[in-house]
Write a structure and sequence with these properties.
three-stranded antiparallel beta sheet, 18% strand, 10 helices, seven-stranded mixed beta sheet, Rossmann fold, 39% helix, 269 residues, 2 domains, alpha/beta, Chemotaxis Receptor Methyltransferase Cher, domain 1
Length: 269
């Protein structure tokens, strides 16, 4: 018989594990949530309790299951054109004042299911139609990356997309796809997605960026982890580039390597 309840000791094991892997701090109130999300994995493997599941993960013999655990415990709330002032800054300050001929590259470092990536892409396509650009999205969660790559969403997710952008860059589904829309293939061709754990140094192969979005992910981190993540990102931000964080976040006490140009927007000297 599978034991549905999780003990304090078992919860502590998983709390340390997800913190070590993803830097996510789970407080005591998340105990029920963790048990609910992982309980189905116990049933999948016919395990009796969460301790058995933890030992299975800790053995190192099940890397795909470890990724499944991470996918289940990471939060991925997002929507199109969230915090619209950042997209206006991208348009009016970054793009409008840009003089260099190289392609503009922007990184959405916690891109979840892709809404932020495509919001950036629509902004760039609309503001610089004759120039080259690229948007890179990354996330630790493979499940949301698969969704992001597809660029396929429910029409219920269109709130926030300007009507002109909706007409120009989104294709409404018909027949079996009615009630959904697809990001225009031409727009998707200028995006790339990678699985990246921000807790680790970022591979040079991803390249450098003029703008990095790191929004609404640091709220799940403690101070030490925030500093570690920002330290890992900054080598990929070009001199003079901008780092944009969420409206409820700050870099005060996190790093001195960027300067504030306005609330939630920082510049690398």
């Amino acid at each position: 018989m599978i034991e549905a309840n999780i003990t304090d000791e078992e919860f502590a094991l998983f709390r340390r594990l997800i913190y070590k892997i993803a830097g996510i701090s789970l407080n005591d109130s998340k105990k029920v949530l963790l048990a609910g999300r992982l309980g189905k994995r116990l049933r999948q493997y016919g395990l009796k309790n969460f301790g058995d599941y933890y030992r299975m993960l800790a053995s190192g013999d099940y890397p795909e299951e470890l990724q499944t655990m991470v996918d289940l415990l990471t939060t991925n709330e997002t929507y199109f054109f969230r915090e619209p002032q950042h997209f206006e800054f991208l348009r009016s300050e970054v793009i409008a004042k840009r003089t260099i001929p190289a392609p503009l590259r922007v990184w959405s470092a916690a891109s979840s299911t892709g809404e932020e990536v495509y919001s950036i892409a629509m902004t760039l396509a609309d503001a610089m139609p004759e120039k080259q650009w690229e948007v890179v999205g990354s996330d630790i969660c493979t499940r949301v990356l698969s969704k992001a790559v597809s660029g396929h969403y429910s029409l219920a997710r269109t709130e926030g997309i300007p009507p002109g952008h909706m007409r120009k860059y989104c294709l409404k589904g018909v027949r079996s796809h009615e009630g959904t829309f697809l990001i225009d293939p031409e727009l998707r061709r200028k995006t790339r997605f990678y699985q990246i754990n921000l807790m680790n140094p970022v591979d040079n192969d991803i390249g450098d960026f003029e703008v990095i979005f790191l929004r609404n992910v640091m709220i799940y981190f403690d101070q030490e982890t925030k500093a570690r993540v920002v330290h890992n990102l900054l080598p990929r931000l070009k001199s003079g580039g901008h780092l944009i964080i969420g409206h409820s976040e700050t870099l005060n006490g996190i790093t001195s390597k960027v300067t504030s140009v306005r609330p939630t927007i920082y510049r690398k000297p």
